Queue: 2 jobs
Job 1
Amino acid sequence: MQTTPKEPSSIPFENDPNFYKQLAQQNFKRMYALAKFFLWVSLGLVLATVWCHFFFKSYPHYHSVYIIPYGLMFLSNFMVLLLANPKKFNQNGSLDYYKQLEEITAYYICWLLILSLSISLIDFHYQHHTVAYIMSLVICASFFIMRLRYFIAPLIVAVIAYILNYFTLDEPYIRYTFEMHLAIFLTPVLLVVAHFNYQNFITSFQQEKYLCRETTRSRQLANELAAANTELQRLSATDELTKIANRRGFHQYKAALEERVHPYTLTVLMLDIDYFKVYNDYYGHAYGDMVLARVATVLNHIALSTNSFAARMGGEEFIMLIPDQRPEEIVIIYKRVIRDIQQFNLSNAASKVSDQLTFSAGAYRGEIKTNDEIEEFMHKADTLLYDIKKAGRNGFKLMEDEEVLYHLQPIIKHKRP
């Protein structure tokens, strides 16, 4: 049974900027959302307190004491909204920058808990409950992703304040006693929750990093495989000896031509090395292979410069597909082929027409209206090539429809004795 690879047990992240970047970004968004919530809550409490103080004579006078913590909470959260906007988060910051953001978030949590504690102490003296601090404690411990050291100090201060406040009472209220015990009990519980949130974030970061690495590796392997497949397809369509397209490559180019908008002009030029079999027997196959390679190089170079295509169809036979060229340009292309090959000064003592390497060629030009006509043009060009060979080789014939556009009669040079 196959098993999936396990992720590494520990991935170093202590000095990884990406870890602190994600941590700071998460806490930045949460701090902004929480500040927006507490801003509206504190604003509502401030307005309600002011309204009741001035318009309700029966409203207890001590409620004006709440203005100070409510006002501080409103102002501090208003400043957080101005300075901690997630849109201002620097995505390309340094490691120190992200660590500073983590400390700023910790200061905000401490300040929020201190304000909530002060409100709860006032609540106890006048209304005999401490709900504000307990709610803020639960929200901060479960909402933020922070290390325990940022929670321990304000929680210890809060517990001490609760205990001292309890012993200052002449007759402790049962409700306060319950809430004090609840706060003290929730302190280690919420520390565990905060620790769990932080460890869960670490685990998620490790998994994400592992998945990113595996995804990158998979993409790299996929790209290598695609490159290998592309190279394999290229090699399968390339003649091993001459390094130009083979018959398969020819059919691929032909298929591409069939996708063109019809009609269009096409010339099929078939070229054959004269007396190549006897050349091989006379000079040996090594020289024969050299000749094929040089001829192919010339044809491919001319094809690339004229937006045409050249391929070796087998043996000593080559083909060129030349789209969108006038008859006189086809003749120029043929003459370039002969001229460039003659520059190699390739001898052929076994030839019956010349002591130099010669060629027979036939070309058919016309307008392609249907894809089947490409095969028909090939057949007609091959027939013209056969006519040249039958007439004595070393010639060229170009036709369009039934009209001969150019005919270079077979030239038979008298060989030197």
Note: The CA atoms of residues 272 and 317 lie 5 Å apart.
Job 2
Amino acid sequence: MARGPGQQWSKAWLTAAAFAVVSAADAAPGSAENDSAVSADDLLKITEPLLNGIAEEEARNGPYSANLIELLTSLGLAYQESGEDVLAVAVLDRALYLKRVNEGLFGLDQAALLERLIDSELAIGRLESAEDLRGKLLDLARRNRSDERSATIFRDAAEREVDRYETFLREGLPPQLTIGDPEAPTRAAASGVWRARRLYNEAIWALAANPRLNRAELADLEEGLARTYYLEASNRNRWYQGVDDPLYGLGLVSYQRRVDYTGTAASPSQAIDYARALVELADWSLLFSRNGTALKRYAEAYALLVGQSVSAASIEEFFPTDTPVFLPSFAPPPLDGAALAGSTGYVDVDFEIGKYGQPRKVAIVPAAGDRAEAISKQLASAIGNGRFRPSPLADGAEYRLRYSLADGSLTPRP
């Protein structure tokens, strides 16, 4: 995208930018265009001094002056915030070019300009250009791995890959014409979870030199990384694949690091954070049928909370008595997206969980409302195939719940 802006080109875009804004501000009263005239007039008040400042700086120090970078960036942001994204792209592109000319090709300071350009390209609808810029942003981060600011770039990219992968799992790929290997798009989409994993690891490496200063962010990154292991494991034919299951081992290491990053538990608030990390570690063990290990960690977390005099309400959030905790706790709830706005229907369900969180005796009681019968079967399947967080105080639990068709909530039944 970046071009070598000569003096003639510089004057041309300055004239075009000024003309575009003035034309909007001069819209005829009463015309449809006049609806935006007030905001365009406000924009002109902001941009006119910047345009004049840019012209003066060019006349004084030439079109490659480093002083133009800040002026161009301010002008580009003004256009962007006013919805003039085509103009914003042109101006921010030139600011990026001059930043590279004056400060070097691969300085991470240019990341903010790239991110702004991506936003405007997306607003215009040029998705391919936005993806190309995202690739350049990642390349920039990889050239500056030791700079902690690169972690945010890696993390954002990882989260996009996870979102795309989850969309692929839910909806598959849209119909498309392929030349050559027809399975290539499917393989590329399915490998999104591995790309996300690499990106989370790169973000962690960028912060690992100062773990004490970056504890909270490192813990969040480990959670995101562990989520990729869950997504892969949950889409295999079976969760548990033996004691040497590599995904269990990878997730275990990630959750153990999360516990380490949490630090000490010297106060009730610290105890809550530490217990949360322990409980999530126990959840992971339970999902892979390391039942004894999981129960020991649940008991450790509960003892910690009680020992630090954490409130009963806070403990209840970890181990609720009236409603079950579906595992993993960060995954969407069962029947996510099946709610029917305005419905008065419901499905009542009774079931038990055993000592290790395994469901049993799942029974649909009454069901009322449109689609209630179909949803009752889905709910029974979701519960019967699920795994739940057990209480460290009992060898099982019984639940009487009502699933609302209106909002998808699952609450205790009177």
Note: The first strand starts at residue 346 and ends at 353.
